[in-house]
Amino acid sequence: MTDQTLPAPTASLIFPPLQDLGLARENPRFHEPADEDIPRLAETLFAAGVVIPLAIRPGRKGEQPFMVLDGRRRRFGLLHLLAEGRIDPTYPVKCELFESKAAQAAAAVLPSIEHAPTHMAEVIVAIGKLRKARMNTRAIAAALGYDELEIKRLEALSNVHPTVLKAFRQGRISLRHVRQFARLTDRDQQEELAQSALHGHFHDYRLQQAVSGGRLTVEDSRLALVGLDRYRAAGGRVEGDLFGEMPDRLLDAEILQAAWRDRAQPVVDALKATGLAVFTAPDTGFRAPDGFLCLPYVMERSLTPEQRGELADARALAAEAEAAIGVDVLAGEAAADVLIPWVEAKLAAAAVPHPGMRIAAVILSPDAASGVEAEFFGVEIPKIEADEPDEADESYADQDDGAASDISAKIETREVEVDVEGANHVLHETRTDVATRGLIRDLADNPMAALTALVAQLFKHLALFRGAYRDESAVNISATPYSRGGTKPIPALDGEVRDRLKARVTAYAESRLRPIAWVDSLAHGDKMALLAELVAISLDLREERTSRVRRAARAEAAEIAELCDADISAHWTPDAAYLGVHSKPLLAQLLVDMAVEDPRAKTLKKDELVTFTAEAAAERGWAPQILSWQSGVIDTEAVAPDEDHEADEADGAAPPIDEACDAEPRSDDETATDLGDAQIAA
Length: 682
Known about the structure:
Distance between the termini: 100 Å
Low-confidence stretches: 384-413, 462-475, 635-682
Strand content: 5-15%
Number of helices: 27
Helix content: 40-55%
Strand order of the largest sheet: 1-5-3-4-2
Oligomer: single chain
């Protein structure tokens, strides 16, 4: 045991003026200049004063009265305040005076080598504790001399899951990663990722995906056409990144999408005027809409010289139109004036190398450079042989996809007979198309029948599990408005229903309500009428080929037609468009069915006979029985779908031919009439 005892502490705290303090050469960092953080330290000193005294010794010959052994940066901070004129040279500085040689040596060396550096995690925790002590951001910033933004950033970091800071202390993640964690609102997800870091399995990309996934920012391609000012004027909110590392975030996706659609509407209208079916989608890459085909790739060397020249001219016009599109133009009010010529030029260029197809549909999507991107789709130009109809393949029953439950497999359907005698595929499709439109009209006028059809569909989807679709709406029901390529609605049939729905869309827009609130505000009768119209427009009974008879769908159509006493002749009689796909013998048979006995009919040319037949039908208010869905149903013993299918297979019925693109359609959020987010505009 030693006789030496610890020296008793002596009162050595003094307050010499700043002008009397110099920097001692014994200071380990005597030669280092002031660093870039001195101004911030100066703010802390100005706000809180000198909390930890400077260690000084008496000055020697040629030195200032007192020399700083430890506290070099605090002295620089005070000198910074002096240079700014915020304190004067006589400002008293809190110091501890060391007079003995041993004490001076210890004061100069030990604070630098014995002091444990403070980890940034401890600073973050300390700020969090100050906030929990109900000290507000401004007060903390004022007390420490920090900028309020810096305190807010430290507060955000202090709110991460404790496991995150633990991984940070251990060096498993960096401060940049902690800032990323602070952007995650799900603390359970924070803990999961931080635990993987503690176990040595942290992957930066997973954190990046968790933060950036679904994040809508000012870099969104829709903003090129909408403009930030227009988005804000519509009520859209913008949130800046607290750490200044990521693009500003847009908080109102619906407002941005609605604004983009509004800006793109002139382009939609211009394309619709050309007879195209127009859709919009959130991005490119969608498969062809129902009833349309992707344009095949064409090698230019396979084109004729005339086609190559025409294609080069069309592309030159498109390039010239695209060159007129600029950032300022897109954000301005005259954006449509440059976009419409460009899209029309692209349409012309797309049509040149595909002489066997007709461009019939387009999907418009946002584009950061041009505001709008257009992807075109077509339909095959039919080759109609009027006097030599195609031989009809034997029909077959729709195959079950295997997803139905045992209960649904036992559902019986009424037997259906379909007359395709003498009809080629085009005529058959036209018949089923017009018949569908007729049933749409009658069902739209009968809300109770529509209610029955809707409830039955819900029962199949949700109780019998015969197919279900998932979207981001509360009720998982999917529907698509009926269409047939670029064929326009028939005014007296589905056209009438579409006009009603357009009027309702206008009323909805004027109400400024959300869909559920708007429907709830309708009178009961209006609700029922709207229900009927929506269910009706979702009907799709068209059959593209005589070999693709949809027996189960036809049986349901017959039941619906019976419910609403459907009679297509009450609204429409065969017109030239419908009759034009009939051969002369079939037209003659229609006249026989109408009991028209006129010898002139045998001498008329095809076009004249079409007009003659249309006039005869209009005079009599007559429509072909084949357009009645009840005409092919036999009220005999019901046949189970599986048995019916097996019987067809035994007869050698051909399987369905998929004429669409290979890619499946994407399904995203917004409305039941979307391609994903694709809003139908036709």
